[in-house]
Write a structure and sequence with these properties.
It holds the Pfam family Glyco_hydro_1. The strands form five sheets. The chain has an eight-stranded parallel β-barrel, surrounded by six helices. A three-stranded mixed sheet has the order 6-8-9. The protein has 517 residues and is α/β, with parallel strands linked by helices. It is built from 16 helices and 17 strands. The chain is 42% helix and 15% strand. Helix 14 runs parallel beside helix 15. The chain starts with a helix and ends in a 12-residue tail after the last helix. It is globular. Strand 14, helix 15 and strand 15 form a beta-alpha-beta unit. The structure holds beta-D-fucopyranose.
């Protein structure tokens, strides 16, 4: 009898719970529909951009990007590194990706999660392998292609303490060991690999400007405890390129055939345009491009540093032996391009540059910067609408510009736009109605990309940075690039308005109340 009463009470409770859940779901659904209608109204008041999935070739990937350190960490109450606890919530995140209709997800492997210590110990952390196996399997189960970045800024502290990380050639073998561990465990399912994320930017922020750990630099770039801004970025990149070349050789020889995968690298790819019509500034814009993305890509396509760099640099630019040139030449199947903005370029060889008006203009008249002053302003007017990141302005035509540059310089090698995204200026609220700017940003950049594709550029995919707000390196949680917001207390994922537009663009979102014709 007692059992029966408690069973009835239990049933009553679970029915009540169900009713409450239904009410909650309905409410969330209705409120999101209202937000969508509101945003559509705001959008229609602004410039409408007619961009459709059908503007891109069949099979073109639409994805979102994250990186391990920025989203994975676990709240432990001892540091700011709470991030989004993707480690425990990855299934929820995969469901989100699926519900948006995205066909690819780009993420990175945490080096220290997989290999907690150096190569000599041969210790592989099985729990880390299981975690990535589960992500990969669950993505594939839902028809989402995993795009794996092997290294995205984070490496075990031990490698820094023992020999100084990327400043030492010893790092090359450590990286190859890490890459091989990833290939061994995941290459039977992962088809798209990127060895390193943005070696060029990492070298700049770490060894030139000293903004990222281990924070090394020298004047005029900054006043760090130690470092040499004119030389160390060149050494770090040299080691990263050789590490890439060795890992690619291994991949092609032993792992590629498993699923006929492809391997590339991702570079930070600003577009530069001359500040004035003077020849010197036009040359400065070309130099800036060569000293930025081509610094990485020329060696990996042609086997050596760009002629524009070799023209000015002396012995501080490390050189490749003939075997190394052979190793590097043609060592990418595709180019990953992280593109956020465009800057003006001004020559500092023939004219004087004032190089102290921001942290990013310090040292513009130095060789390591190609003697180029870059700025987002001309005569007091910004090149495009400012965003939360001082170097990123909204200049959609820059997307077509950088893609065309790559197409011309590298004989139309396949490309993926591996990152493109918007963070709102600090004084603006990032949620709901202000997200209209993010929507507009993606529409305009996609339209510009579609134009490049129409003109023959071999671009095969576009990834939004980022799936969710996350730990934005030296800016912490202040900058928000995500299409999902993270509730700081509960870490719940809350869709921003842009998500509905993503769904609509990907032809996923069809309920009667929200359909906009
Ligand atoms: C890129 C990085 C990425 C993120 C975005 C905003 O340079 O690859 O991790 O920080 O910028």
């Amino acid at each position: 009898m007692e059992k029966h009463v408690s069973a009835v009470a239990e049933r009553g409770r679970s029915q009540k719970q169900k009713r409450m859940e239904n009410i909650k779901i309905t409410w969330v659904f209705v409120s999101h529909c209202l937000i969508l209608l509101l945003s559509a109204a705001i959008l229609s008041a602004e410039e409408q951009v007619d961009i459709r999935r059908s503007d891109f070739p069949h099979g073109f990937f639409f994805g979102a990007s994250t990186s391990a350190y920025q989203v994975c960490n676990i709240a432990d109450g001892t540091s700011g590194d709470i991030a989004n606890d993707h480690y425990h919530r990855y299934m929820e995140d995969i469901e989100i990706i699926h519900s948006l209709g995205l066909t690819a997800y780009r993420f990175s492997i945490s080096w220290s999660r997989v290999l907690p210590s150096m190569r000599e110990t041969w210790w592989v952390n099985q729990a880390g392998i299981n975690f990535y196996n589960s992500i990969i399997d669950n993505l594939l189960l839902r028809g989402i292609q995993p795009f794996v970045t092997i290294f995205h800024n984070d490496y075990p502290q031990e490698l820094e303490d023992r020999f100084g990380g990327w400043l030492s050639s010893l790092m090359q073998e450590e990286f190859v060991h890490f890459a091989e561990t990833c290939f061994k465990h995941f290459a039977d399912r992962v088809k798209y690999w990127m060895t390193i994320n943005e070696p060029n930017l990492l070298a700049e922020v770490t060894y030139e400007r000293g903004l990222f750990p281990p924070a090394r630099c020298s004047p005029p770039f900054g006043h760090c405890a130690s470092g040499n801004s004119d030389v160390e970025p060149l050494i770090a990149v040299h080691n990263m390129l050789l590490a890439h070349g060795k890992a690619v050789k291994l991949y092609r020889e032993q792992y590629k055939s498993k699923v006929n995968g492809v391997i590339g690298i991702t570079v930070c790819a600003y577009m530069y345009t001359a500040l004035t019509d003077f020849k010197d500034d036009k040359e400065a814009a070309n130099r800036a491009l060569a000293f930025n993305a081509a610094w990485m890509l020329d060696p990996l396509v042609f086997g050596d540093y760009p002629p524009e760099m070799k023209r000015y640099h002396g012995s501080e630019l490390p050189s490749f032996s003939s075997e190394e040139r052979e190793l590097l030449r043609d060592s990418i199947d595709f180019m990953g391009i992280n593109h956020y903005g465009t800057l003006y370029a001004k020559d500092c060889i023939h004219s004087h540059c004032i190089c102290n008006d921001s942290v990013y203009t310090l040292g513009s008249d130095r060789l390591i910067r190609g003697f180029v002053y870059t700025t987002g302003e001309r005569n007091g007017f910004p090149i495009g609408e400012p965003t939360g990141m001082s170097q990123f302005f909204v200049v959609p035509r820059g997307m077509e510009g950088i893609v065309n540059y790559m197409k011309e310089r590298y004989h139309n090698k396949p490309m993926f736009v591996t990152e493109n995204g918007y963070s709102s200026p600090g004084n603006e609220d990032d949620i709901y109605q202000h997200d209209v700017k993010r929507i507009h940003y993606h529409q305009l950049y996609l339209a510009s990309l579609a134009q490049a594709v129409r003109n023959g550029a071999d671009v095969r995919g576009y990834f939004i940075w980022s799936l969710m707000d996350n730990f934005e390196w030296s800016s912490g949680y202040a900058l928000k690039f995500g299409i999902y917001r993270i509730d700081p207390q509960t870490l719940n994922r809350i869709p921003k308005t842009v998500c509905y537009l993503v769904q609509r663009f990907l032809e996923q979102f069809q309920p009667w109340c929200c359909r906009i014709v």
